[in-house]
Amino acid sequence: MKTTLLIMAAGIGSRYGGDIKQLAAVGPNGEIIIDYSIHDAIKAGFNKIVFIIRKDIEKDFRSVIGDRMEKICAEKGVEIEYAFQDLNDIPKGYEVPKGRSKPWGTAQAVLCAKDLVKEPFAVINADDYYGKEAFIKIHEYLVSDVTDNHFCMAGFVLKNTLSENGGVTRGVCHMNENGYLTDIVETANIVKTATGADSDGVEIDVNSLVSMNMWGLSPDFMNMLEKGFNEFFANLGDNSLKTEYLLPIYIGELLQKNEVSVKVLKTNDKWFGITYKEDKDYVIGNFNKLVDDGVYSKNLFSDL
Predict the structure, then answer these.
(1) What single-letter DSSP state applies at residue 14?
(2) Phi, psi dihedrals of residue 73, rounded to the nearest 5°
(3) Cβ partners under 8 Å of residue 131, min gap 6
(4) Cα separation, 192 vs 165, whole angstroms
(5) Predicted TM-score (pTM) of this structure
(6) Residue 145, number of CB atoms within 10 A of its CB
(7) Could you tell me which of 147, 151, 157 has the C-alpha nearest to residue 138?
């Protein structure tokens, strides 16, 4: 069965000083975070990769990851495709607001791959390390349980996702007794404390499950996204220069209307990523430890 991994790599994080943080070398042989995600995805059974990027970073992206990964994936029988997120790619009948400079967010990014994805698929961020367990669980779910409106997501333990270098925003998951998502509460400025974590002085349970934007979805979800993008523009309002069409927000809206269900798959792996420049050394140290502990080979793709 074909399953696709969509990798959202179109963003350049301002908190990372304007560099393309998705392309930062973090592994012992210069590997970037995307390398580990692709390795874990192929190992779990995914056999198609779609990179979502912007045209203006295509040259850098291909030189650092794309060309190299195409060779590796060709040897493994894994397809690679590219989709391009564009500010001007909006529903018919609308215009880009004057002064708008940034694309429309993660839900638009996924929608950019609509014509490339006809099979169950997972979505991840390019600059996040998710660990092996989440890929295995989501892939198993995609091939056995996902239907047109029945999805899944990886739920990470909050304490395993915090940065040492500043506050982070996390989508705290609320679930019913059967482990299905009922709501995601976007919570900003979560920081580590001596006793756990808090957000602007309000204590947060560090064992809560949070969304790190790792979803398992059906191809029919693309049609929902397209409909939602039209609704987004119809209700854009006055904040048209900054408002974004965000994947967890839109899925939350579908949940509130009982149009979809989402099974939360708990993973105990430690998440890490480069949010701040200061995170880079920490991430490099984590990957060196994973290699030293035998979780990954020094020749990353040699075990596939």
Answers:
(1) G
(2) -70, -35
(3) 40, 267, 269, 270, 271
(4) 9
(5) 0.92
(6) 13
(7) 151
Instruction: Supply the DSSP symbol for 91.
Output: -
Pairing of strands 128-129, 150-157: unpaired
List, for residues 218-227, the tens digit of each pLDDT value. 999 999 999 9
State pLDDT tens for residues 159-211.
999 988 889 889 999 999 999 999 998 899 999 998 999 999 999 999 999 99
Q: What b/e string do you get for 7-19 counting C-beta neighbours within 10 Å, with b at 16 or more? A: bbbbbbbeebeee
Per DSSP (E only), the strands in the chain are: 4-8, 48-53, 79-84, 121-125, 128-129, 150-157, 168-175, 181-192, 197-199, 202-204, 209-217, 261-267, 272-273
Q: Give the side-chain half-sphere CA count within 13 A for 178.
A: 6
HSE-up of 275 (CA within 13 Å, CB side)? 14
Q: Are 217 and 107 in contact (CB under 8 A)?
A: no
The token duo for 49 is 């990769």
Q: Which amino acid is at 151?
A: F
